[in-house]
């Protein structure tokens, strides 16, 4: 039986950050190709809440996974695996959402692994290997925490109207974000409304407080408000938007 070795080295560069993915497939079957895990990593709290996620590849699921990570020239350490079906609150943390463009979570068996004790400004190398009956397939990726920061959404978003053309939006920081005194967050507000059969939207950016007024609104109109959180230095990505909160302003009579 022929043994095929296929390797692909891909170097990506974006926004001054470098990421590397190496897919190495070892296949001892003559026709089938073993799928490598498609791994996505997010840090929901700097520096110790980094989770990497992947779905079982299509087709036959692997027998098991082996996941290790390392920093700089250190020896690899085992990643703490969180199997599919674990409650969101399971240690070491709730898993991030599915990657953009992926099927709904209900259609996937999502695996997660927790990488504790990472350091800022360090190059992290993660190796996830899917072990099949006839061989194995690995995904080797490299990243820095600063590039994958994505807080969870703000919570307890609430609105009030101090005057007929203003809405005061208030919120609380995500409970999963630690050390706000060392790593503060900034926030953005998105508000939307319907006008002439079209959905309009506007953004207010860079609030470091937990409240902000939205002024110049129209009476008699319903607005929808959402808030996202981002590292105050602009590292990584803004969180997903918080669940929408609606408010209808009173119609002003002449």
Written description of the protein model:
Helix content is 2%, strand content 49%. It has one helix and 17 strands. It has one helix spanning 145-148; strands at residues 4-14, 17-27, 40-43, 50-55, 64-71, 77-78, 80-82, 110-115, 124-132, 135-143, 155-163, 166-172, 185-195, 198-207, 211-214, 222-231, 245-248.
Key features?
2% helix; 254 residues; Immunoglobulin-like; disordered N terminus; 6-stranded antiparallel sheet; 1 helix; 4-stranded antiparallel sheet; 49% strand; mainly beta; elongated; 17 strands
Quick synopsis:
The protein is mostly beta strands and 254 residues long.
Strand content: over 45%
Order of helices and strands: EEEEEEEEEEHEEEEEEE
Find the CATH superfamily of the largest domain: Immunoglobulins
CATH architecture of the largest domain: Sandwich
Widest β-sheet, arrangement of strands: 1-2-10-9-5-6
Helix and strand content put the structural class at: mainly beta
How many strands in all? Answer: 17
CATH fold label of the largest domain: Immunoglobulin-like
Number of helices: 1
How many structurally independent domains? 2
């Amino acid at each position: 039986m022929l043994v095929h070795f296929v390797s692909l080295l891909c170097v990506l560069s974006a926004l001054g950050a470098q990421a590397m993915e190496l897919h190495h497939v070892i296949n001892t079957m003559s026709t089938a190709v073993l799928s490598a895990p498609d791994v996505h990593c997010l840090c929901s709290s700097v520096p110790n809440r980094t989770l990497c996620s992947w779905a079982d590849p299509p087709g036959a699921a692997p027998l098991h996974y082996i996941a290790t990570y390392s920093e700089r020239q250190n020896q690899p350490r085992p990643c703490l695996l969180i199997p599919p079906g674990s409650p969101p609150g399971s240690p070491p943390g709730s898993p991030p959402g599915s990657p953009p463009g992926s099927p709904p979570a209900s259609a996937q068996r999502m695996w997660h692994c927790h990488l504790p004790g990472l350091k800022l400004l360090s190059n992290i190398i993660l190796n996830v290997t899917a072990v099949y009956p006839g061989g194995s397939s690995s995904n080797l990726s490299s990243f820095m925490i600063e590039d994958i920061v994505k807080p969870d959404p703000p919570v307890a978003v609430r609105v009030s109207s101090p005057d007929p053309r203003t809405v005061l939006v208030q919120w609380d920081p995500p409970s999963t974000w630690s050390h706000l005194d060392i790593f503060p967050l900034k926030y953005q507000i998105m508000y939307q409304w319907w006008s002439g059969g079209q959905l309009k939207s506007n953004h207010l950016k860079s609030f470091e407080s937990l409240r902000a007024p939205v002024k110049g609104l129209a009476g008699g109109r319903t607005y929808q408000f959402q808030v996202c959180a981002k590292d105050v230095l602009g590292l990584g990505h803004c969180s997903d938007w918080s669940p929408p909160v609606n408010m209808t302003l009173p119609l002003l009579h002449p």
